[in-house]
Write a structure and sequence with these properties.
Blueprint lengths: L2 H53 L2
């Protein structure tokens, strides 16, 4: 009889672990997107800096 509650606990724990794994995947994707956007912003700022240097000459 004690096995049933243990099996329920294991099933609930497994579900929570799977949920955490899914959150980790989503966070990883968001971080990749953020990194890509950061690179785009960096490129734009470099262009602005180059233009500013040309106009200050």
């Amino acid at each position: 009889m004690a096995l049933i509650p243990i099996m329920v606990i294991i099933a609930l724990s497994t579900g929570k672990i799977q949920g955490y794994a899914q959150l980790e995947v989503e966070l990883s994707l968001k971080m990749q997107t953020l990194s890509s956007e950061e690179n785009e912003v960096k490129s734009i700022l470099e262009i602005i800096s180059d233009i500013a240097e040309q106009t200050n000459c």
